[in-house]
# Entry
Amino acid sequence: MTSYRCGGVRATPDDWLSIGEVSARTGAAVSALRFYEELGLIASERDERNQRRYPRHMLRRVALISVAKRIGIPLQDLQEAFADVPLDRPPSHQEWQRASRGWKRRLEERRQTIERLEAELTGCIGCGCLSMKACALLNPGDALAGDGVGPRRL
# Structure
């Protein structure tokens, strides 16, 4: 296994974790870790028994992936954000800042969408009909059906 440096100190064998250890520490399923590796979001090396071993700094990446998924950031966006963040060493503070810069904008867009949805749900529930097809106030004659499938007012 390649040695890497963490804070200027050469990593020891204790700094390498099995896939099961990473799964236990992060709560991510082993299958998810393999999938993240296929996508290039995380990386492992193989030991002499051909088992995956992850450098300890991958825990931070997996944690960030988990948080991003929880707030609705697609894995493709993570791939783009991580494109310039090295896999072979812990990232610097500046690298993390660069990787997450676009997320703030995206989170603000999501926040605005949720606020609009909340306002629309309140309006719909307030009218009492609870039916988008029959709603004379928000969607008379189901006019929004002509705009395509799915939610149209968000």
User: Anything to note?
Assistant: The CA atoms of residues 134 and 141 lie 7 Å apart. Helices lie at 19-26, 30-38, 58-70, 75-82, 93-127. The chain has two domains: 1-91, 106-154. The chain has a mean pLDDT of 81.
